[in-house]
Design goal:
The complex is a heterodimer. Chain A is of the alpha+beta class. Helix content of chain A is 28%, strand content 11%. Chain A is built from ten helices and eight strands. The chains are: A alpha+beta, B mainly alpha. Chains A and B meet through α1, α2, α3 and β3 of A and β2, α2, α3, α7 and α8 of B.
Chain lengths: 284, 273
C-alpha cells in the first residue's frame, strides 16, 4: 500500500486479480438471482400433466416446451363437434406466465376441458423429448392402451357430493369412460328416510386414469369429484401394516429389509417370546 | 425510398412473419408444414428441428432426451454452422422485430444523441450461456427456457397471448431507453450460441473499400456495429461472429460497397494498407 501522497500503483497482477474477482462476483450474482427465480418457476404440485408424463421433476427437466403434444391434442380427428362442426378446444394447454405452472409446459384443467382418452393417444407419440414416455401407455402386446394412462386420480368430497346426501345423481358414474370400473356406485341404506337408498360414487384408484370427465360432468357448482395428481391424492401405508388375507401384499412386506424400517421408539432387542415368558408382564 | 434500400429488410420480415404464421397455422388449423414452436419444430411432419441451446440446458439438468431432439439440434447446428452463421437472430427470431423497432425509434427520436450512455459489455451473452447451464444443473429446470422472451413471444403467437407479453414490452423499453441494441446485442445467450455455432459459416457480408464513400450509414443501422470495423479501411469480409447477416448494411449502402458473399475462405483481397 502506497505512502501518503503517492498514488497506489496498479500492477498487472493486481489488475488481473481484481478483474477476476469482478467477473467471478458478477457471475455468482447472476447465478444466485437466476437460480432463485428458476427454483420458484416450478409448477404448483396440483398441476395435471398429459398422459404418460414422467414424474414431475423429470418431466420439468426433459420437456423442451415445443407444444407438439398440445397441437396433436387440439388437431386430433376426434376433436370435431359433429353437430355444430365447430372445433372444441384442446385438452392440453401450454402454460402462460400467469398460470401456476412452469411456463411453456403442457397441462390440463379437467373442469374446462377434460382428457377424452383418445384410443390412439395422439399427444404421446408426438412428444420428441421423451417427457411423455410412450412406454408408459404401451401394453405387453406393444399396443397403445388408454387404460394404462395415469394423469391423476379422482377424489370425491363426500360433504358436497349430493349423492352422499341421498339425492339421486350418477353424473360422474355415467361420464366415466371406464364405466363401472373406475367409479362404482356403492348402495347404502338411507336411514334418515328409512325407505330410500344412497348410490354413492366410489373411485377405484387402481383403475382411474385421472381423465377428469367426471369432474367435468359433476353437477355441483364447484365439482364435488375432482382430479388430483396421484402423489397428492393418495396416501402411503408404508411397511407397518399388511393385508393378512392378500398373498401379494404379504409378499410386499416380506420383501422389506427390516433395517430400513424406522420406528419412533427404539425397537426392543428382545424376542417376542421373551416378553411372554418372562412373567413380569406388567413391567413392559 | 428505393426498393434496393429495403430489400433484405423486407425479405427478413417476410421470413420472420412467415415462420410465425406457419407455426400458428400448425396449431390452429393443423397444417403440417411447420409444427411445434421455436424450441423444437417438425418440418413437413417429419424433419425435427431443435434449438441447440435448449438441448444443452436439458442435458445440463441431467435429463436423457429423445433422439428426435438430438437429430433436430444437429440439423440446426449444421445449417447455421456451415451456411447461415448467426442468421437465426435476424431471419427467424421474432424478438428481432421488437428490438429492431426499438432501435428504429431510438434513431427517430434522437435518443442516441440525447441520452446519457449506459455501457454494458457485449460479452454478457457469453457469460449468460455459462450461467444458464449452471443454473439448469442446480435447479433441474432449463434455466433460459423459463425466461426466454424468444420462446415466450413465439408461443404467444401460436397458443394465444399471455402475461409473458409483458417481458417483450420490457425488452422493447430496455432497448429504447436503456441500452442501444441492449437485448440482442449484449445479453441474449441464444444469440451468443448462434454466434459461436456460426464461427466458420460460409455466408458473409463483404466490404469493398474502393467503392466506399465513408458515409457510415452502415454503422448507424448495424445492431452489432463493432463488426464493421473494416469499413473504409480494408476490403475484407465481416468475419466477427456477432454479425447476424441481417443485410441491413447492404440495404442502406448506396455505393455497392457491401454485398453478401459465400465464404471467407474464398480468396480475399489483401491490397489494403
Amino acid at each position: 500500500m502506497g505512502q501518503k501522497g503517492t498514488k497506489d500503483k496498479i500492477t498487472p497482477r493486481r489488475r488481473f486479480f481484481t478483474n477476476l474477482a469482478h467477473n467471478v462476483g458478477l457471475g455468482a450474482m447472476g447465478v444466485l438471482l437466476w437460480a432463485g427465480y428458476t427454483s420458484k418457476a416450478k409448477s404448483s404440485p396440483l398441476t395435471l400433466r398429459p398422459p404418460a408424463a414422467l414424474p414431475e421433476s423429470d418431466f420439468l427437466k426433459t420437456c423442451i416446451k415445443c407444444g407438439l403434444c398440445a397441437e396433436a391434442c387440439y388437431n386430433r380427428p376426434q376433436n370435431l363437434d359433429k353437430e355444430g362442426n365447430k372445433l372444441t378446444p384442446g385438452t392440453l394447454k401450454m402454460a402462460k406466465a400467469q398460470d401456476d405452472v412452469t411456463i411453456g409446459t403442457p397441462f390440463f384443467i379437467p373442469r374446462d376441458v377434460p382428457c377424452y382418452m383418445c384410443e390412439d393417444i395422439p399427444c404421446v407419440p408426438a412428444c420428441p423429448s421423451g417427457a411423455l414416455d410412450i412406454k408408459k401407455v404401451t401394453n405387453e402386446k406393444g399396443e397403445l392402451d388408454i387404460r394404462l394412462m395415469k394423469m391423476g386420480v379422482a377424489v370425491v368430497d363426500v360433504s358436497s357430493c349430493i349423492a352422499f346426501w341421498g339425492l339421486q345423481c350418477d353424473a360422474c358414474y355415467r361420464a366415466c369412460p371406464l364405466l363401472d370400473e373406475a367409479i362404482k356406485l356403492v348402495y347404502d341404506r338411507n336411514s334418515r328416510t328409512g325407505k330410500h337408498a344412497f348410490l354413492k360414487p366410489v373411485v377405484n384408484v387402481d383403475v382411474c386414469t385421472g381423465c377428469g370427465l367426471c369432474e367435468k360432468a359433476c353437477v355441483t357448482e364447484k365439482p364435488a369429484i375432482f382430479v388430483l395428481p396421484t402423489d397428492v391424492a393418495l396416501g402411503k401405508v408404508g411397511d407397518h401394516y399388511v393385508k393378512g388375507w392378500d398373498k401379494a401384499d404379504q409378499q410386499r412386506v416380506k420383501d422389506v429389509d427390516i433395517n430400513s424400517v424406522t420406528t419412533q421408539t427404539e425397537r426392543s432387542k428382545k424376542k417376542a417370546e421373551d416378553y411372554l415368558n418372562s412373567g413380569n408382564l406388567l413391567e413392559y | 425510398m428505393k426498393f434496393s434500400n429495403y430489400k433484405y429488410l423486407i425479405l427478413r420480415r417476410i421470413s420472420q412473419l412467415g415462420l410465425l404464421f406457419l407455426y400458428f397455422a400448425g396449431n390452429a388449423w393443423g397444417w403440417s408444414i411447420l409444427q411445434g414452436d421455436i424450441s423444437t419444430s417438425l418440418l413437413f411432419g417429419k424433419i425435427p428441428l431443435s434449438d441447440p441451446f435448449a438441448l444443452l440446458q436439458i442435458l445440463a439438468t441431467g435429463a436423457i432426451v429423445g433422439v428426435n431432439i438430438l437429430v433436430g439440434a444437429l440439423l440446426i447446428t449444421l445449417f447455421y454452422g456451415i451456411f447461415g452463421g448467426r442468421a437465426f437472430c435476424s431471419w427467424v427470431c421474432p424478438v428481432n422485430m421488437v428490438t429492431d423497432a426499438a432501435a428504429w425509434l431510438r434513431r427517430k427520436l434522437l435518443i442516441d444523441k440525447i441520452e446519457r450512455k449506459v455501457w454494458i459489455s457485449r460479452n454478457i451473452r457469453y457469460y449468460m450461456i455459462v450461467i444458464a447451464l449452471i443454473v439448469s444443473a442446480i435447479t433441474g429446470l432449463a434455466a433460459f427456457e423459463v425466461v426466454s422472451p424468444i420462446s415466450i413471444l413465439n408461443r404467444n403467437v401460436i397458443f394465444g397471448i399471455g402475461a409473458g407479453i409483458g417481458l417483450i414490452i420490457a425488452i422493447f423499453l430496455f432497448d429504447l431507453f436503456v441500452v442501444k441494441n441492449g437485448w440482442c446485442g449484449h445479453i441474449c445467450p441464444l444469440g451468443g450460441v448462434y454466434s459461436i455455432i456460426g464461427k466458420y459459416s460460409l455466408l458473409r457480408v463483404k466490404h469493398t473499400r474502393e467503392k466506399c464513400t465513408l458515409c457510415m450509414k452502415c454503422k448507424e443501422v448495424c445492431p452489432e456495429s463493432q463488426v464493421l470495423h473494416m469499413i473504409g479501411k480494408k476490403s475484407i469480409s465481416v468475419n466477427d461472429i456477432e454479425c447476424t447477416n441481417c443485410g441491413r448494411c447492404i440495404d442502406v449502402c448506396n455505393d455497392d460497397a457491401l454485398e453478401f458473399s459465400l465464404g471467407k475462405f474464398i480468396k480475399e483481397s489483401k491490397e489494403s494498407k
